[in-house]
Design goal:
Length: 189
Amino acid sequence: VYMATLNSSGINSNFVQLNSLPKKLSQGAAIIIANKIYFAGGFTEVNGGGISDINDKIYVTTINPDGTIGSWAQVGVLPKALSGFGMVTNGNNLVVIGGRDANGNDQSGTYTAPVNPDGSIDSWTATNSLPQPIERGSILKVGSKVVSLGGLSNGTILEKVYYADLMNDGTIGSWQASIHNLPQPLCCG
């Protein structure tokens, strides 16, 4: 984990290393809630480039006033081990979207879980699934909507754009396909 500061012109300082995650992980997801960073999922690469150890753990650290962070602690687990998924907040809930499971299968599932007052993650509930399996898509929260752009679906690079409402109860409404696709298939945003 590294940090840099931005000056008023938007130019960053040199990066400094902060407290590392408990293990090396690639293609996990991170979000910030208040003064905490949550990092979930991902995989560890083994020698020779193969994927090993798809992670189901969720870690948290506190952001200090000077921008540094505290040590990382496990505060929960994902509904299943995932990499290449999206994660957004919806009120006081984490929402996990799509990804690839430990068996190498792309996922369409979407799950939501409340963040407890102590920062731990409560039980997961399935909510409306994506229209198709998507891993490594760009998952964004825009106002009260969540948007999925591109990504991979069973090896095919997508140009699809999907969106859904973030409901007040922490769930996601039905996914809709945008009438406007990306200008070309794009993966891995």
